[in-house]
Amino acid sequence: MVAAVPTPKYEVKDLSLASMGQKRIEWAAREMPVIKQIRERFAAEKPFAGIRLVACSHITTETANLAITLQAGGVDALLIASNPLSTQDDVAACLVSDYGIPVYAIKGEDNETYHRHVQIALDHKPNIIIDDGSDVVATLIKERQNQLSDIIGTTEETTTGIVRLQAMFNDGVLSFPAMNVNDAETKHFFDNRYGTGQSTLDGIFRATNVLLAGKAVVVAGYGWCGKGVAMRAKGLGANVIVTEINPVRAIEAAMDGFRVMPMIKAAAEGDVFVTLTGNKHVIRAEHFEVMKDGAMVSNAGHFDLEIDLQALGAKATGVKDARNFTQEYSMSNGKSIVVLGEGRLINLAAAEGHPSAVMDMSFANQALACEYLVKNQGNLEAKVHSIPEEIDRNIAALKLKGMGIEIDTLTEDQIEYINSWTVGT
């Protein structure tokens, strides 16, 4: 049983959902052995004593396990949602009532509420920000200059957020260090490829119950997330088409066995579309015009700008809810286009997000990146930093240990060989 704690200020849907949230948080923890090992160490060492932290993240069972781990390390944390449709209301309720962690997140909250929650997060006067898309950091820099001196650093694990942070650095407004969790090997190789690959299709299935076998699935963007979705869709018998702007990735997709073409051509062939680019208006007016009747459009990028819903709405003669998280737009040409999850992250809007086994490594990176910022306070440049290799390898080693897998180590002779230029073949 979790010990009773004072109830903090909060905005969640219903505290009576907490008992279900607790069961689900515990279920997720079963496949998060790395976070468990880190939590045990944090509880003993208290690396965050006296530190205030704000996390703008998807309020899921996995995020809950990260928050509980940081709390064990002594942090004073406050959580807000990073996406209006990604909150799991029972988890939010549990964090408030059972762990005493202030949470401001309700599934389906409007944009006004979301931005108000960002302000509430900054009212917490954080020393560390865990961001998902860099909205909190951007708001801080634009509107809360007086709080910049309080910031030790920030961590970010989305491609969108890293692009924004780099733009802040280029513009000379990033005045504190930012840890690029997104590009850690133990994050993007696994979370992006296997997590996004599985959970995106899970969201599509829950929203539509569609059979992918034999259908043309258009994957926009062949980064690690796109690779994951393309791989899983192919495994289910789909005819996968990839669209890209990067010639190297386009070649890679072609050599992986996928057809590659511009979106304007793919739009006429696709049955199901998934955008994973981190950019805006990847699917837009000219693409909607040539789509098949009943084409399904979804997004797995962080923000809902990848699909130009405003252009679609302007062309539509009517919109109706066909199923949960499924809206059908009737077009003037007699066809219909189906939008899943309101164009937001389909894996979190209609499903539960990534499996906990992969988020175990992603959130281990978040936890250890926060610890790294605290330990190196005052010694890091105000720029975007890669996760140190030793942290990445430590997480991989902890994951292998949790999976019960052993690997080889170099012999002394092998170490000497790879470090010598005098020894030839």
From TrEMBL:
<feature type="binding site">
    <location>
        <begin position="158"/>
        <end position="160"/>
    </location>
    <ligand>
        <name>NAD(+)</name>
    </ligand>
</feature>
<protein>
    <recommendedName>
        <fullName>Adenosylhomocysteinase</fullName>
        <ecNumber>3.13.2.1</ecNumber>
    </recommendedName>
</protein>
<feature type="binding site">
    <location>
        <position position="187"/>
    </location>
    <ligand>
        <name>substrate</name>
    </ligand>
</feature>
<comment type="function">
    <text>May play a key role in the regulation of the intracellular concentration of adenosylhomocysteine.</text>
</comment>
<keyword id="KW-0554">One-carbon metabolism</keyword>
<feature type="binding site">
    <location>
        <position position="244"/>
    </location>
    <ligand>
        <name>NAD(+)</name>
    </ligand>
</feature>
<dbReference type="InterPro" id="IPR020082">
    <property type="entry name" value="S-Ado-L-homoCys_hydrolase_CS"/>
</dbReference>
<dbReference type="GO" id="GO:0005829">
    <property type="term" value="C:cytosol"/>
</dbReference>
<feature type="binding site">
    <location>
        <position position="157"/>
    </location>
    <ligand>
        <name>substrate</name>
    </ligand>
</feature>
<dbReference type="GO" id="GO:0006730">
    <property type="term" value="P:one-carbon metabolic process"/>
</dbReference>
<dbReference type="Pfam" id="PF05221">
    <property type="entry name" value="AdoHcyase"/>
</dbReference>
<feature type="binding site">
    <location>
        <begin position="223"/>
        <end position="228"/>
    </location>
    <ligand>
        <name>NAD(+)</name>
    </ligand>
</feature>
<feature type="binding site">
    <location>
        <position position="192"/>
    </location>
    <ligand>
        <name>NAD(+)</name>
    </ligand>
</feature>
<comment type="pathway">
    <text>Amino-acid biosynthesis; L-homocysteine biosynthesis; L-homocysteine from S-adenosyl-L-homocysteine: step 1/1.</text>
</comment>
<dbReference type="GO" id="GO:0004013">
    <property type="term" value="F:adenosylhomocysteinase activity"/>
</dbReference>
<keyword id="KW-0963">Cytoplasm</keyword>
<dbReference type="InterPro" id="IPR015878">
    <property type="entry name" value="Ado_hCys_hydrolase_NAD-bd"/>
</dbReference>
<dbReference type="InterPro" id="IPR000043">
    <property type="entry name" value="Adenosylhomocysteinase-like"/>
</dbReference>
<feature type="binding site">
    <location>
        <begin position="221"/>
        <end position="226"/>
    </location>
    <ligand>
        <name>NAD(+)</name>
    </ligand>
</feature>
<comment type="similarity">
    <text>Belongs to the adenosylhomocysteinase family.</text>
</comment>
<dbReference type="InterPro" id="IPR036291">
    <property type="entry name" value="NAD(P)-bd_dom_sf"/>
</dbReference>
<dbReference type="Pfam" id="PF00670">
    <property type="entry name" value="AdoHcyase_NAD"/>
</dbReference>
<feature type="binding site">
    <location>
        <begin position="300"/>
        <end position="302"/>
    </location>
    <ligand>
        <name>NAD(+)</name>
    </ligand>
</feature>
<keyword id="KW-0378">Hydrolase</keyword>
<dbReference type="InterPro" id="IPR042172">
    <property type="entry name" value="Adenosylhomocyst_ase-like_sf"/>
</dbReference>
<feature type="binding site">
    <location>
        <position position="132"/>
    </location>
    <ligand>
        <name>substrate</name>
    </ligand>
</feature>
<dbReference type="GO" id="GO:0033353">
    <property type="term" value="P:S-adenosylmethionine cycle"/>
</dbReference>
<feature type="binding site">
    <location>
        <position position="354"/>
    </location>
    <ligand>
        <name>NAD(+)</name>
    </ligand>
</feature>
<feature type="binding site">
    <location>
        <position position="279"/>
    </location>
    <ligand>
        <name>NAD(+)</name>
    </ligand>
</feature>
<feature type="binding site">
    <location>
        <position position="347"/>
    </location>
    <ligand>
        <name>NAD(+)</name>
    </ligand>
</feature>
<dbReference type="GO" id="GO:0071269">
    <property type="term" value="P:L-homocysteine biosynthetic process"/>
</dbReference>
<keyword id="KW-0520">NAD</keyword>
<feature type="domain" description="S-adenosyl-L-homocysteine hydrolase NAD binding">
    <location>
        <begin position="192"/>
        <end position="353"/>
    </location>
</feature>
<feature type="binding site">
    <location>
        <position position="191"/>
    </location>
    <ligand>
        <name>substrate</name>
    </ligand>
</feature>
<feature type="binding site">
    <location>
        <position position="60"/>
    </location>
    <ligand>
        <name>substrate</name>
    </ligand>
</feature>
